[in-house]
Amino acid sequence: MKKILVISTLDTKGVETFYLRDKIRQLGKTPVVIDISMRQAEGFRADVTPEEVAKAGGSTYEAILASRERAKNTAIMTRGASSVALEMWKRGELDGVIGIGGSTGSLMATDVMRALPFGVPKMMISSTAALPGMSTRYIDIGDIALFHSVVEISGLSEVLKNVIDRAAHAICSMAEVAPLGGVRKEGGRKAIAITMLGPCEKCASRVRQALESKGFDVIGFSAAGIGDRAMEAMVEQGLFSGVIDLAPGAVIEHLVGGMRDAGPTRMETAGRSGIPQVISTCGLNHITPPKSKYTDDHKSRRKYDLDKFRTWLRASPDELKKAAMEFKRKLNNASGPVKIVLPMKGWSSVDVPGSATYDPEEDKIFVNELKNGLKKDIDIIEVDANMEEPGFAEAVVRASISIF
């Protein structure tokens, strides 16, 4: 029987959680309730108790009850529930997970969900899903379906029952989908991850189409900070045989605090996993600091307005040099093959003659620093084209096929 993990705080959501549990059971699945309450739940006992959760989190429930440090207690219970959920999944005893709660419950439950691999069905019934900024915190890089209850999760009104009924049907149906395994192959097709952005969309499409025609399965990720961070997690999960990183701009963005920052380990997971990588430079010569944090230096920079919301500023020579040093550090540590393909006439559709930020001579600061100290077995392929020209995509395809 398919097992569905039900995450809740029974001290405040006991009646509602047990209604959800019973509905899942009626639909032919086995519900497993885990209680992440930080206070005693009178009259309700979960399959996985708060005592067990606290122990898995490295503490005791007695310590949780005695403590007034809410943030610390939340972290312990979340860590413990994540550990329990992961162990269930590793044993093959978890086919889906559903949470129910308000702000705190949603934050904790979705943290637990994100500890599980991509492809495990995940759903959060939340009364606060529509609050400004909350949905992005709940989902982050997780493949989580948010179900906005609209009404408060308080008492079993006919309206709330209807919400819970629909969510129960949804998670039970999702659990019927076969889970992803390791490195994914569909009919012998190797799965390849590719990063992309609007300014290199033509290149990414040409590369994808060419590789698909040669038997590869190409999965794209928007390299705007969230998608590429999710890609790193999925690479670590073992879902890909190779990576084409057309848009690694998050590396320079992490150095300057830009909006596309994907964290300190961006462009490291594939190398650590030993799978082949083809690297390029879309967006790497531009930065996107929040406009609310513009300095006088930022205001004086050459810029390119992508639209009325997004502005790219030209990276400084010093920033380009530091980005190249980060590239070397990350790629020199790679245990798998690496090829770097550089478009010498512009790193994106933004980099064209007439654009205020077009400066191929200044881009050579990055290129020259990159060459100085890069491992000798890492090929640098310089292409006399703009990234969005067909000839560049052809070079990327050739480099990819040679190592994939």
Q: Helical stretch count?
A: 15
Task: Kindly provide the radius of gyration, computed on alpha-carbon positions and rounded to a whole number of angstroms.
Answer: 24 Å
Q: For the report, how would you describe the main beta sheet?
A: 7 strands, mixed
CATH classification, class level of the largest domain: Alpha Beta
- Using the 3D structure, state the CATH architecture of the largest domain: 3-Layer(aba) Sandwich
Percent of residues in helices comes to: 40-55%
CATH topology of the largest domain: Rossmann fold
The domain count comes to 2
- Which term fits the overall shape? elongated
Order of helices and strands, N to C? EHEHHHEHEHEHEEHEHEHHEEHEEHEHEH
Terminal Cα span: 39 Å
Give unreliable regions as ranges: none
The number of distinct β-strands equals 15
Structural category is alpha/beta
- What is the percentage of strand-forming residues? 15-25%
On the 0-100 scale, what is the average pLDDT? 95
Multimerization status: single chain
CATH superfamily of the largest domain: Uncharacterised protein family UPF0261, NC domain
Nutshell version of this structure?
With 404 residues, the chain is an alpha/beta fold. It has 15 helices and 15 strands.
Would you kindly provide a written description of the structure presented here, covering whatever features stand out?
By secondary structure, this protein is α/β, with parallel strands linked by helices. The chain has 2 domains: 172 residues, Uncharacterised protein family UPF0261, NN domain (Rossmann fold); 219 residues, 3-Layer(aba) Sandwich (Rossmann fold). Helix content is 42%, strand content 17%. It contains 15 helices and 15 strands. The strands form 3 sheets. Strands 6, 7, 8, 9, 10, 14 and 15 form a 7-stranded mixed β-sheet that branches. Strands 2-1-3-4-5 form a 5-stranded parallel β-sheet, with helices on both faces. A 3-stranded antiparallel β-sheet has the order 11-13-12. Helix 1 packs across helix 7 and helix 10 crosses helix 13. The protein is elongated. The mean pLDDT is 95.
